[in-house]
Amino acid sequence: MTINVSQYYKDHIKKLNQNHFIYKVKKAYYLLTNQEERLYEVGFSEGFLYAAKVLQEKKEIVDSNKKVIGFAFKSASPETINNIVDKVCKKYCISKHTVLSKDRHKEVVRIRSILHNLLYEHYDISISSIGRFFDQDHTTILYSLNNKQNKNRYWGSEQTIWKEYEELKEIL
To answer: What residues pair up with 71 in beta bridges, in sequence order?
Structure first.
């Protein structure tokens, strides 16, 4: 793979001249001496090549180990998520349609909270991915996760949800 850094630099300067940067940055650039301008170009080139190298290394790590900077991601396909939701719905005798709907009845929200926590903790699915699956905002998912962590609402220490949650983890 050949990288033409000088072309990227020229494009960068062109963007600078087209005022893509804020006025102060543009003004500061033009106050540079010729030597400082050359240092800027060299720094840009080295930074660009370094970034390309880092991105290539990250891609190799992700491709080979499915790891990115020390975090391992479990693969959870949409089929896996659907199976989990189906099993939880079957356990609580509720339709999948109801769980995935905008219904805010207490028992439905409680089941969703269990699902959010299972998917996030046990299957390492991101908050935004869970939100997309349930057609909810990521902050709603975060609220559900924080309720468990802080033992609020359905996740109070006196509630039976803890036992149910552990049973579901074993089943799945």
So the answer is: 68
Main-chain dihedrals φ then ψ at residue 158, nearest 5 degrees = -85, -5
pLDDT, greater one: 96 or 12:
96
- What is the value of pTM for the model shown? 0.56
Could you identify the residue written with the tokens 């036992």?
163
Backbone angles phi, psi at 72, to 5 degrees: -100, 135
What's the CA gap between 115 and 112, in Å, rounded?
5
Tokens of 117: 């926590």
Q: What is the pLDDT of residues 9-31, one digit of tens each?
A: 777 777 766 655 545 565 566 66
Domain extents for the chain? Answer: 5-72, 78-171
Q: Judge whether residue 65 has pLDDT over 80.
A: no
- Residue 66: left if φ>0, alpha if ψ -120 to 50, beta else—which one? left
User: Do 66 and 72 meet the contact criterion of CB atoms below 8 Å apart?
Assistant: yes
| Phi, psi torsion values for 67, nearest 5 degrees | -125, 145
Q: Report the residue count for the chain.
A: 172
Superfamily of domain 78-171: DnaA protein, C-terminal DNA-binding domain (1.10.1750.10)
Write b or e for each residue in 47-63: b if 16 or more Cβ atoms lie within 10 A of its Cβ, otherwise e.
eeeeeeeeeeeeeeeee
